[in-house]
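Thread amino acids onto this structure.
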């Protein structure tokens, strides 16, 4: 798992890593710049476009100068636009400035006509994580001009103007792609900043995750290696009982499809036995949609404890509080709660106390705000999610572009998979199915959450490669098996 450090911890990290590797700060900058340039050559190597690098006075600008040199060496036509003189720039900036080849175009901001860069590749190296106040003066002027002209816009480490761990104040660079070093900065993961960040790429500086562990931070970025480790292995003699018996409750009032999506997702995630308790009249459609599903009626309440996991809520509508309460009182293992089950809790706050510890709640932003009250911005929402998870000893899966799992021990894990094409009806029901399936297979709630959000996102990525904006939730669940294959899980 990759730790996400706050901006003010990065210089500590740099110092410590430089010492550990016995390298100079310039060498670390060269590594970072090469990581960017290698990414650039892979994605833009064949582009004949002119490259313009806008370099601020700090080390982000220093990266920009090194990248300008490296891309020039690879045959690109490169110009740099500078905002500071040698004497008022950082030490490694100065080193890299001296190393600039003669044939690179060099402009001072005051003399630069921004129309020259129109249509080229614009690399933003004005400010990185060292920004400590809103943009003003020539920096603001430059960003406003860059945001107006055409061409592809790429930010180094973070779009200039965004603080690394806080909400933007004023203007910032509108990037098409942000190439962040080592780990994504927290502020790149919030929906409030999506228009600045564009697509997010994270490039490795060779700092091992174990090294990052030395630094205090509650935030993590989920990566495939740790997802792989968290999977339970099954063997030749495993039988369907080992893969769990799960029950889904929901699918009423014209929304039976929601619970079918959850149930089918559980089958595709590997559940041995999948039961559905939906409205009586929907039995036929459930059987017709998947022959492997079993349907239940009210009498299932008597043997509800026989199940290994429950998934409640998709398409459930409003059920009597008494029934909901009885389910929570009768089933004391972790439960997955989604959609209408979350709305029940939002309306009846006394239900919080009945949630089995380790339960998983999967609100989208709207549902979350009903549960926790309105938030000023996503940073505020993340704080509330942390508090709710700690207080109620539950796992809170706040769904979105970088779904965030808040755990009872106060940590927050951001998912790294998924695409914009997953924002489609029923996508969340599929996630409920996957999570319930993992719980039923005996995964700890934490492993279920991490594996669940990761496979959901990966299945969505695979599905949307074929179906792009026509991707529907059924496509996502059909690709769950491929997401296992991709990770080498049998
Ligand atoms: N381990 C890594 O990730 C590495 C990252 N690198 C790059 O270094 C930058 C951070 O560099 P730093 O010098 O600390 O900060 P900045 O370049 O962002 O600029 C700070 C500089 O600017 C002044 N300043 C701050 N805000 C403003 C403002 N609004 N207006 C004017 N001036 C401002 C501040 O006082 C400083 O003087 C990181 O993002 C990476 O790109 C390294 O290359 C190596 C390892
Ligand atoms: K930048």
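Threaded sequence (490 positions):
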């Amino acid at each position: 798992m990759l730790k996400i450090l706050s901006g003010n911890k990065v210089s500590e990290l740099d110092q410590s890593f430089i010492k550990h590797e016995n390298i100079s700060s310039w060498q670390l900058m060269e590594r970072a710049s090469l990581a960017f340039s290698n990414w650039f050559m892979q994605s833009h190597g064949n582009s004949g476009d002119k490259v313009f690098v806008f370099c601020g006075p700090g080390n982000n600008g220093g990266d920009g100068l090194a990248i300008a040199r490296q891309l020039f060496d690879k045959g690109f036509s490169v110009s740099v636009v500078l905002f500071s003189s040698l004497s008022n720039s950082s030490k490694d900036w100065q080193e890299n400035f001296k190393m600039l080849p003669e044939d690179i175009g060099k402009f001072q901001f005051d003399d630069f006509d921004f129309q020259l860069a129109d249509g080229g590749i614009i690399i933003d190296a004005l400010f990185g994580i060292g920004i400590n106040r809103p943009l003003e003066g020539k920096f603001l002027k430059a960003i406003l001009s860059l945001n107006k002209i055409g061409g592809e816009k790429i930010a180094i480490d973070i779009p200039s103007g965004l603080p690394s761990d806080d909400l933007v104040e004023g203007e910032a660079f509108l990037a098409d792609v942000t190439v962040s070093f080592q780990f994504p900065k927290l502020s790149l993961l919030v929906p409030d900043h999506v228009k600045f960040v564009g697509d997010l790429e994270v490039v490795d500086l060779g700092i091992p995750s174990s090294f990052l562990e030395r630094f205090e931070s509650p935030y993590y970025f989920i990566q495939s290696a740790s997802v792989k480790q968290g999977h339970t292995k099954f063997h030749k003699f495993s039988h369907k009982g080992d893969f769990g018996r799960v029950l889904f409750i929901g699918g009423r009032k014209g929304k039976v499809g929601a619970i079918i999506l959850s149930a089918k997702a559980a089958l595709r995630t590997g559940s041995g036995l999948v039961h559905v308790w939906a409205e009586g009249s929907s039995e036929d459609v459930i059987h017709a949609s998947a022959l492997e599903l079993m349907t239940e009626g009210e009498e299932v309440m008597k043997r509800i404890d026989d199940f290994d996991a429950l998934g409640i809520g998709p398409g459930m509508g409003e059920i009597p509080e008494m029934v909901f309460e009885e389910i929570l009182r009768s089933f004391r293992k972790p439960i997955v709660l989604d959609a209408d089950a979350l709305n029940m809790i939002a309306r009846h706050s006394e239900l919080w106390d009945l949630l089995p510890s380790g339960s998983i709640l999967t609100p989208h932003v709207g549902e979350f705000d009903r549960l926790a009250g309105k938030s000023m911005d996503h940073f505020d929402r993340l704080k509330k999610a942390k508090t709710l998870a700690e207080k109620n000893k539950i796992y809170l899966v706040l769904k979105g572009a970088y779904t965030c799992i808040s755990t009872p021990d106060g940590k927050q894990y951001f998912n790294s998979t998924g695409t914009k094409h997953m924002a489609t009806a029923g996508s969340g029901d599929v996630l409920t199915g996957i999570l319930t399936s993992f719980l039923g297979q005996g995964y700890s709630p934490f492993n279920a959450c991490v594996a669940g959000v990761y496979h959901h996102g990966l299945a969505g990525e695979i599905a949307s490669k074929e179906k792009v904006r026509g991707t529907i939730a059924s496509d996502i669940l059909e690709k769950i098996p491929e997401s296992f294959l991709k990770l080498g899980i049998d």
